[in-house]
């Protein structure tokens, strides 16, 4: 169980679709070839890293209960790993994918087969690269420059990298950008029919609003968990999140823009341009000009809070919300930014991000391998349960004494325990929303709020009946990565890991690693 104090962000239509049908389990095999391909957007062409030469990559279709084998062969110049975002990896962290956490990356010229089962899940999940900023191209966001060079330049200067040049919908920015004739996604619909849209925010750093001109949407699922249906004119979705909506084609036949742009209620620079696609009724010529939807303002905090309050688990007899009521461990993590000395950086300092004032340092040996084989010196299992020094977390922004400790420090969690995690945003340097993702399992968002968490009063306000279940915080055995899903903040160290100890039973320990696990 967890309490998350961060808001939510999108690409359009899922890559990893977990769709449940009454059928026998099967073995599904896929081949992913990581290769460099020249791609053109916004009148600019450049080589990018792709899967099977496609931008975005291929969709995987499976049924609940299936076994999935994806052989990844790396032909690119970058090391690679693939994360199956939101998939519950029972005893099988080796297939989870984050580089240097559960595996070392797949090196150029090498292959690795991700072998996992789809157990107790159905709906829309997704896959993406989980090393460097390669998620931008292996999944879909556009920079004119080589995104890895952009990141290196920012790191060397100790500053944020340049923002993206466009968001995309299914890899296409739409006709509000130049050279868009071939780069607009069009979805044809028939009058009177209802359509299920699988929406994924694959952007690296932006929460996004999404709306369709003239059409409401009924939200029915988030993060592969059914919701109590509700109708809305727009949705808000954070990096890493998925949302399924129903759309009725019940308007005057025509062409209607589907549009997305960022939500940002902090004084920070963002790529605030609008990416678009077109919902087009069958038989309507392309010469008809589409109409734009009325998206919320980019700083519309009221809409964001109202929308997130509407998200409730379906909690039906068939799909109950089994909220744990007895808490075994209480964790309180503060989220903040910091500045450390960097003589070679532009201003003599570099920006960092931290949990409990610890900025995570990536190891050179995968944490799960170090845990399984008892390799010493890779990590310290002493991550603090609470911040070292309490302060007024959400007062006026603090800009002095911003030094941050660094280290590869993780938290040990007892097998089958229930953990309550409070994520407290802070005023260190600036205030910003952070969508957190925990690998391997799910969490219940039992409460959110503005300001400082009050342990004496706030727990009484928890929703323990039908809170939204998302892919963050209840943890199975193994080593599981938790990080901000804003790629910028992850690179600055806003991450940690949980080492979940083995249980007493024969099926309550981590499985041995596969023979083709990439070497470090």
TrEMBL record:
Claim: Transit peptide is one of the keywords in the record:
no
Report the InterPro entries cross-referenced here. Answer: Cu-oxidase_2nd, Cu-oxidase_C, Cu-oxidase_fam, Cu_oxidase_CS, Cu_oxidase_Cu_BS, Cupredoxin, CuRO_1_LCC, CuRO_2_LCC
Reactions catalysed = 4 hydroquinone + O2 = 4 benzosemiquinone + 2 H2O
The entry's keywords: Apoplast, Copper, Glycoprotein, Lignin degradation, Metal-binding, Oxidoreductase, Repeat, Secreted, Signal
Q: Which residues form the Plastocyanin-like domain?
A: 139-283, 382-502
Q: EC annotation?
A: 1.10.3.2
Q: How is the cofactor bound?
A: Binds 4 Cu cations per monomer.
- Cross-referenced Pfam families, in alphabetical order? Cu-oxidase, Cu-oxidase_2
- Of which family is this protein a member? Belongs to the multicopper oxidase family.
Query: What name does the UniProt record give this protein?
Result: Laccase
Lineage here is: Eukaryota, Viridiplantae, Streptophyta, Embryophyta, Tracheophyta
Q: Tell me the name of the encoding gene.
A: LAC11_1
């Amino acid at each position: 169980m967890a309490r998350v104090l961060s808001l939510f962000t999108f690409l359009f239509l899922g890559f990893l679709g977990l769709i449940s049908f009454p059928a026998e389990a099967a073995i599904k095999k896929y081949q992913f070839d990581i290769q460099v391909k020249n791609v053109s957007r916004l009148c600019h062409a450049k080589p990018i890293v792709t899967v099977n030469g496609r931008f975005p990559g291929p969709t995987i279709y499976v049924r609940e209960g299936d076994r999935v084998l994806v052989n990844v062969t790396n032909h690119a110049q970058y090391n690679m790993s693939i994360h199956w975002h939101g998939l519950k990896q029972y005893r099988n962290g080796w297939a989870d994918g984050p580089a240097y956490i559960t595996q070392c990356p797949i090196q150029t010229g090498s292959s690795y087969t991700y072998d996992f089962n789809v157990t107790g899940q159905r709906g829309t999940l997704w896959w993406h690269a989980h090393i460097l900023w390669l998620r931008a191209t292996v999944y879909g966001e556009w920079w004119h420059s080589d995104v890895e060079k952009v990141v290196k330049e920012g790191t060397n200067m100790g500053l944020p990298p340049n923002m993206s040049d466009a968001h995309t919908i299914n890899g296409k920015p739409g006709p509000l950008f130049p050279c868009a004739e071939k780069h607009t996604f069009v979805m044809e619909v028939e009058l009177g029919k209802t359509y299920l849209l699988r929406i994924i925010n694959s952007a690296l750093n932006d929460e996004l609003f999404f709306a369709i001109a003239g059409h409401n949407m009924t939200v029915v699922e988030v993060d592969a968990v059914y919701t109590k249906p509700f109708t809305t004119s727009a949705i808000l979705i954070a990096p890493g999140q998925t949302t399924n909506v129903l759309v009725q084609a019940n308007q005057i036949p025509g062409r209607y823009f589907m549009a997305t742009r960022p939500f940002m209620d902090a004084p920070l620079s963002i790529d605030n341009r609008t990416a678009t696609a077109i919902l087009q009724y069958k038989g309507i010529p392309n010469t008809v000009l589409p109409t734009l939807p009325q998206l919320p303002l980019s700083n519309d905090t009221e809409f964001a809070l109202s929308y997130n309050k509407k998200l409730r688990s379906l909690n039906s007899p068939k799909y109950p919300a089994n909220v744990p009521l007895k808490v075994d461990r209480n964790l309180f993590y503060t989220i903040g930014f910091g500045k450390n000395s960097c003589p070679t950086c532009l201003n003599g300092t570099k920006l960092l991000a931290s949990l409990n004032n610890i900025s995570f340092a990536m190891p050179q040996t995968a944490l799960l391998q170090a845990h399984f084989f008892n390799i010493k010196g890779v990590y310290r299992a002493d991550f603090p349960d609470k911040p070292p020094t309490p302060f007024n977390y959400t007062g006026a922004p603090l800009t002095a004494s911003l030094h941050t400790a660094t280290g590869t420090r993780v938290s040990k969690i007892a097998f089958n325990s229930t953990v309550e995690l409070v994520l407290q945003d802070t005023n260190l340097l600036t205030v910003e929303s952070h969508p957190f993702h925990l690998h391997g399992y799910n969490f219940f968002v039992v409460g959110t709020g503005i300001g400082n968490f009050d342990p004496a009063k706030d727990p009484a306000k928890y929703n323990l009946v039908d809170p939204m279940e998302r892919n963050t915080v209840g943890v199975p055995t193994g080593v599981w990565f938790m990080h901000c899903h804003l790629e910028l903040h992850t690179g600055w160290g806003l991450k940690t890991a949980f080492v979940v100890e083995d249980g007493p039973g024969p099926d309550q320990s981590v499985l041995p690693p596969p023979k083709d696990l990439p070497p470090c």
